[in-house]
């Protein structure tokens, strides 16, 4: 990780999808860097396990907010709830996501497509909408959105993933373009590559998970994008590679 463990002391960070995988690893790493973490996911038990890890590593607890991001009305209250309780939000790391169905486009059912769009770009937009006022008031606001290479390079049977990730990326870049000149808020896309997660196992059950990058290995790169100080803006960052500006 870049910098010392005190780099995020006093800052408040929200991590979605924090009950497992990259979300859990990022939450632990952010807490180790000094941030107070607000953790959200559908699974209360998974959030409690992440909180246990944070307490083991730091001696402090996180704030747990069980939430299904597909519940738009509840998602809309997230920003105001954080404002009421903490008065600030400095970082958001959006790790929550669904694989959806891997299928030829012509075989896909409308309900499968609609759920994918709701879980992907619609959730991203609503998350931005509810959190932007807080992040834009932070003296060094940071937002990191996990993305997928299929949004840049579609592949057979991955059409739903490609469409939802490409749409999410476009929404994030539009938000960047709308920031006032001189805004201290930095927003980036992060593509972690082939990581040993539950979603990867679902997508590729024959793949040897032991050969893949563990979530804990990519977490420090995510933390580095949340640090105060000079940061890129609107860069597509892929783990293990130099950042690529795909504006």
TrEMBL record:
Keywords: Oxidoreductase. InterPro entries: NAD(P)-bd_dom_sf, SDR_fam. It comes from Komagataeibacter europaeus (Gluconacetobacter europaeus). Belongs to the short-chain dehydrogenases/reductases (SDR) family. It is an enzyme of class 1 (oxidoreductase). This is Oxidoreductase YciK. The keyword Oxidoreductase applies. Signal peptide: none annotated. It holds the Pfam family adh_short. GO terms for molecular function: oxidoreductase activity. Its EC number is 1.-.-.-. GO terms for cellular component: membrane.
């Amino acid at each position: 990780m870049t910098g010392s463990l005190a780099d995020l002391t006093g800052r408040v960070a929200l991590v979605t999808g924090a009950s497992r995988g990259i979300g859990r690893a990022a939450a632990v790493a952010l807490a180790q860097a000094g941030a107070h973490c607000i953790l959200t996911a559908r699974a209360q038990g998974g959030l409690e396990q992440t909180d246990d890890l944070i307490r083991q590593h730091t001696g402090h607890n996180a704030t747990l907010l069980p939430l299904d991001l597909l519940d738009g009305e509840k998602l809309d209250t997230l920003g105001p709830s954080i404002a009421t309780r903490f008065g600030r939000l400095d970082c958001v790391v959006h790790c929550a996501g669904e694989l959806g169905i891997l299928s030829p486009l012509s075989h896909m059912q409308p309900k499968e497509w609609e759920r994918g769009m709701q879980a992907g770009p619609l959730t991203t937009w609503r998350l931005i909408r509810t959190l932007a006022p807080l992040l834009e008031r932070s003296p060094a606001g940071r937002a990191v959105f996990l993305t997928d290479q299929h949004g840049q390079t579609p592949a057979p049977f991955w059409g739903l993933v490609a469409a939802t990730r490409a749409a999410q990326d476009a929404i994030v870049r539009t938000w960047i373009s709308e920031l006032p000149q001189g805004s201290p808020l930095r927003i980036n896309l992060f593509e972690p590559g082939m990581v040993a997660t539950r979603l990867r196992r679902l997508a590729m059950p024959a793949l040897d998970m032991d050969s893949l990058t563990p979530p804990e290995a990519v977490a420090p790169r995510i933390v580095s994008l949340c640090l105060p100080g000079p940061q890129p803006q609107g860069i597509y960052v892929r783990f293990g590679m130099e950042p690529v500006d795909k504006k």
